[in-house]
Design goal:
heterotrimer, A mainly alpha, B mainly alpha, C mainly alpha, A: mainly alpha, 7 helices, globular, C: mainly alpha
Amino acid sequence: MWKWLHPYAKTERAYQLCSTLQPWFWVGAFVCLSIGTVWGLAFAPQDYQQGDSFRIIYIHVPSAILSMGTYVAMAIAALVGMVWQWRTAYMSMIAMAPIGAVMTFIALFTGAAWGKPMWGAWWVWDARLTSELILLFLYMGVIALYGAFEDKQQAGKAAGVMALVGVVNIPIIHYSVEWWNTLHQGATISKFDNPSIAPEMLWPLLINLLGFAFFIGAVTTVRLRNEIVLREVHRPWVQVLATKQVSKQQSGDAINASVKEGS
Amino acid sequence: MSLYQGVFKRDMHIAFKQKAELVQPLMFLLMVVTLFPLGVSPSPDTLQRIGPGVIWIAAILSSLMAMERLFRDDFQDGSLEQYVLSGMPLSAVSAVKVAAHWLVSFVPLLLLSPLLAMFLNLTVDMYIALVLTLLLGTPLLSFIGAIAVGLTVGLQKGGVLLALLLIPVFIPLLIFATSAVDSAALQLPYHAQLAIIAAMLLLAAALAPFAIAYSLKVSQN
Amino acid sequence: MQFESFTEFLNMGGYAFYVWLSFGVTFVAMAMIAIQSFIKHRNLMKQVVVEQERKARIKKARLQQQDSM
C-alpha cells in the first residue's frame, strides 16, 4: 500500500518533491490564513461572555492542535527512519522540529494573552498549559540532542529515540495532570457531529487550522531541502542545482544593478 | 546465567571502588533538601506542604548526576564495545547494569529518607507513602534515564543535555508520586497513584532494556 | 462586519492590547522562522558553489604543479 512512498527514501527525489509542493503550500497558507484571520477578526460574531478577546481563539486553537500534530508527525518520521532505515525520514523529523516548537510557543503565548483578561492570570498550572509547556521542552530536547552530534546520521537516530520516548509521554502527561483541577475549558472541536461552538465561529477556525497546517508544510519543505543539501553536499546533483540557482541569482542581481545604473 | 552474574558483580565491584562517586550524589541530595527550609520558610506547616515535592525533585536531580556513571566508564575503557560485540543480548546486559546501578544509587537514598522526612516535617503516614513511591518510582528513573544516558554517553558535554532530555519525561512520575504523598497527608487512599506508577515501572522494565540496547548501538556507531 | 468603525475594530471591545499582542507576536514568530529558513537555504547554496570553485582551483593548481615537474 505504501509502495508509492518508497522513491522518497532517496534524497534527490525527496528534494524534488519538496520543490514541487512548496509553492502550493505557501499559496495555501497565505490564502487560508488571510481568509480565516480576516473572517475571525472582523466578521465572526462576538462571544457573549468573552467579548472580542475570544478572537484569539483563531490562532490559539489551531496552533495548539498543530503543535501536538507536528510532534506526532515527528515521532512517525523517527519510527520510519528506525524501522526502514530511511535517512530522509530522520531529515524530515529534524526539519519539522523547529516549526513545531514555534507552534507550541505561539499556543502558549496566545493562551497567556487570552488568559490574562479572562482568568486574571497570565499563567496557571492546569492540565492543558502544563502539558503544552512540557511539549515545548520535548521539542527543545530533540533539537538539542540532534545538534550535539557531529555525525548527523547518528544524530538522527539519537534524536529519533528521544522523540519516540517523548511521544509516549504526551498522553501520560495530559492524563496524569487531570488529577489536578482544570481551569482550562474543554476541547472545542472534540465531537465532530455536535460541536459546542457556533458555525459562524467554527468555519474561520477550521480555515485557519488548514492555513497553519499549510504553513507548517511550507516551512518544513524549505527546511527539509536545507537538511538534504547539508548532508548531500558532495553529490553531483546538489552541485549542479546549486550552481544553477546561484548563477540565476547572480544574473538577477546584475540585471537589477544595471537597471539602477541605467535609471 | 553466570555471564550476567559476572556483569553484575563487575559493576558492583567498580562502584564500590569509587566511593566518592557514590557519596557525592547523596550529599547533593541532602544539601538540596536543606536549601528549602533555609530559602523558602522553616515553618513546619510549609515544609510539610512542600516536603513530598522537595524530596522527589531532589531525588530526580541527584539521580541525573549519578546516572552518567552508568555507561561512561565502560564506554571510555572499551568494555561497552566488548558487550556490543559479544554474543550476549545487549538488552539483558543493560537490564543487569541498570539493576546494579539502582542498588548502588537509590538504596542509599531510601536509607537516607527518614532523615529527609524528619527535616521536612513529614508525618508517619506521609513517610510510608513516600517510601512506597520511592521504591516503585526510582527503578523507573533508572530504566528511563538509562535510555538517555545510552544516547549521550559519547558526547563531550552530555551532563546538562541529559537533564534537559530527562526532566520532561520524569514529570508524570513526579506528579503521581507527590499526589500519593499528599493524599496520605489528608488520610486519603493512594492506591491509584501507586498502581499507575507500578504500571509505568512494569512497562519500562519490559521495554526500556531494548531501547537502551538500541541507544548504546547508536552511540557506538 | 461586526464593528461599526475602524477605530472600534482596533479597540477590539476593550481587549485591544491582548488581541493585537497575540496576533502580532504570532505573525512575527511565523515570519522569523520562515525568513530564517529561506536565508539558510540561500547561504547553503552559495556555500556549495564556493566549495566547488575551491575544489576546482585546488585541482587546477595540482595539475599545473604536475605539468611543471
